[in-house]
Automatic annotation (TrEMBL):
The keyword Metal-binding does not apply. Coiled coil: none annotated. The lineage of its organism: Bacteria, Bacillati, Bacillota, Bacilli, Lactobacillales. Keywords: Amino-acid biosynthesis, Cytoplasm, NADP, Oxidoreductase, Proline biosynthesis. GO terms for cellular component: cytoplasm. This is Gamma-glutamyl phosphate reductase.
Amino acid sequence: MTDLIQLGKQAKKGARELALMPTKQKNDLLLQMAQTIKRNQLAILEANQKDLDQATENNISETMQDRLRLTPERIHTMAEEIIKVAQLDDPIGKVDHMWQNEDGLLIGKKRVPLGVIGMIYESRPNVTTDAASLAFKSGNAVILRGGKEAFHSNQLLVELLQETLENAEVSPYTIQFVDDTSHETAAELMRLTDYLDVLIPRGGASLIKRVKEQATVPIIETGTGNNHIYIDKEAQLAMAVDIIVNAKTSRPSVCNAAETLLIHSEIAPFFLPSIEQALVEHGVSLHADARALDYLETATLADETDWDTEYLDYILAVKIVDSLDEAIEHINRHNTQHSEAIVTDSYTASQRFLNEVDAAAVYVNASTRFTDGSVFGFGAEIGISTQKLHARGPMGLNELTTTKYIIYGDGQIRK
């Protein structure tokens, strides 16, 4: 069993060193990490193949294997996102604002690292490099605990990042890997209050639920994506088809994919057959309510569980609604506060949707698949927060900082 207390002690030491590291040195090391990833592409692919072979043996679905799979293109993207992080402004040391109070004290609010971040995550090896690079740039040490399905990939990636640090005579303890994937070790990490400043879980609903129930370390909840697209009666239907197909089929195994389609009753009779044809061509199965079934040939009848399901697969729930009010009410009752979209030419409908739908990202006439830290210009993301305290939405560098007040005086005492 991994000695998490030892990892915690090492991380605390590494965090102190990293918090004082100049921006240029951090950026240079990140660029070196990216080059190390690129140089070792073959070794990474070999490690990833071991994970894929085990996934096949364990009968993991193809869509879930897609989350796990690395290709030369994906490895290149991982390295490029590290480079993007290096190119971003460093938030550490920035003073948000300063003011002088009635006592003549000059008070400022300064950005500082969170300290030591713990990560518990599943499947996707790119999370390893995203989290490590963002934590490093924002001055935080990170302890990474990936899932057993990506063990070989994650282990090698961390070894390569640590090798880069050691070659530069920098502490490798700023980026550490938990090489025990047992639930017992994960549970211990959730309670590592003496060493972790925050714990970020990233994965499916069961993982998030377990962490919320068991953790004594403060957590930032990154959510599952039960995301909706509502097609308003004033939508451009050709645009709607393109958005739905993209949101559902471009990569159904990720959290920003669409899971439920809501359609206004006035356009349902002629829109549903066309969207069914487009989705069936991509292998999508439809679970529809009784009203929608009248206009669909291949769908099966949905039940109440469908409205709350993150499929992460080529399945889409379909429901007819009679108004924007009904669509908003349905979304706010069933969504996971991740990403929601409306397709409409009505300014009034779009503004009501933006204002009344409760989610981290709300779209007008665009696919939910854009909810991504890299797409938003953050270089990468450590997760997409669906909670409302401290951070919400894709979490980049600023979300991995906190603040301290700095106060300058010239001898003031409080009377």
